[in-house]
Write a structure and sequence with these properties.
alpha+beta, three-stranded mixed beta sheet, 1 helix, elongated
């Protein structure tokens, strides 16, 4: 699977003032807006003393199911 199969991400920031910098990196990493996963963000204590933690969920198509593009 690839990052194009991600559908949502939850961003945990140690400091909410880092949101703009994180948002710029997020937009650069997921450079195609049409496949950019939805995002939610919150300020909280990040485990291990980090500055940011990102949890993402995605999907992988079944080889037996035909996937058709949206009309």
């Amino acid at each position: 699977s690839t990052k194009d199969n991600l559908v949502e991400c939850f961003v945990m920031l140690a400091n909410v003032s880092d949101f703009d910098a994180m948002n710029a990196v997020y937009a650069d990493f997921f450079s195609t807006p049409a496949t950019r996963p939805t995002r939610a963000a919150a300020a909280m204590t990040v485990v291990g003393g980090g500055l940011v933690e990102i949890k993402c969920s995605g999907w992988a198509p079944s080889p037996s199911v035909e996937v058709r593009p949206a009309a």
